[in-house]
Amino acid sequence: MKRVDAFIGLGSNMSTPQVQIEQAFDALAQLPETTLFRRSSLYQSKALATEDNIEQADYINAVAYLRTGLVADALLKHLQTIEQQQGRERDGSRWGPRTLDLDMLLYANERIHTKTLTVPHPEIANRDFVLQPLAEIDPSIEIPGLGAIEALLASCPSHGAQRLS
Residues with catalytic annotation? Predict the structure, then answer.
């Protein structure tokens, strides 16, 4: 079975965020045809401003490096199932508080644009809380269509991402 590298962004700011992230790592390790190859440290960052300026707690973020035989759409469905199992409610609001957010950041070196999935993640270059843990896992990674992670980090706006562990 051919396996590809996939990088998943994890984030939580509700219901004991560090526990949510650890449970998500465990769930990712159990996915069919998939190995959790590496995981980043945990990072804390300020929440992005919501459309209606909801006050919310800081986020805990991390990145998982998977080797998977799942096609991108199947992997996405599994990610959404894990979110739902951990209490994620999709109410349509952007950047609001959540128990768990799993974003497919990269899938092989592919550029995917479908109705349900865009890879690389469309905001990857604007999120230090994603780029820092991604660079920790692989400092030489190239983001398809965007370039070297080192250059992206140098020009990324700060959300105060701080490594915790």
Answer: 88, 98, 101, 103
